[in-house]
């Protein structure tokens, strides 16, 4: 399948990170970390007074952005660093940009920089992604 390759990727936006989604994900991941479930635990750790979103949920926002930006591409790799917490109620925006496109035989490989920004432009995640499809 031919892959359209935009230069800029995204944004993919979540208007407000929801605590009920954190609870569901904590159950699905068997993740009992209280920072996702208990505001008192967050306060006691000195991390504020809002629940903290799970890292895998933040990764998923970046993956959703890639799937929307380049439909039909296989996401072959994602390497990210967690830089900041994402808190309940925050608006987040996943985006990225293409840094290289290489055709090798029957594959087109697209290397991207990706990130997730929280309110106020705070960078929560940054990293790289590799997308692959048939050449154009």
List keywords for this structure.
136 residues, alpha+beta, Thiol Ester Dehydrase, Chain A, five-stranded antiparallel beta sheet, 3 helices
Output the CATH class name.
Answer: Alpha Beta
Strand order of the largest sheet: 1-3-4-5-2
Q: Rg, please?
A: 17 Å
Q: What name goes with the CATH superfamily?
A: Hotdog Thioesterase
Topology-level CATH name? Thiol Ester Dehydrase, Chain A
Number of helices: 3
Helix-and-strand structural type = alpha+beta
Measure the end-to-end span. 8 Å
Low-confidence stretches: none
What's the helix and strand layout?
Elements: E1 8-14, H1 19-29, H2 39-44, H3 55-69, E2 74-82, E3 92-104, E4 107-118, E5 122-133
Antiparallel strand pairs: 1-3, 2-5, 3-4, 4-5
Could you please describe the fold and organization of this structure?
This protein is of the alpha+beta class and 136 residues long. It has a single domain, classed as Thiol Ester Dehydrase, Chain A. It is built from three helices and five strands; from the N terminus they run E-H-H-H-E-E-E-E. The chain has helices spanning 19-29, 39-44, 55-69; strands at 8-14, 74-82, 92-104, 107-118, 122-133. The chain has a five-stranded antiparallel β-sheet with strand order 1-3-4-5-2, covered by helices on one side. The termini are close together.
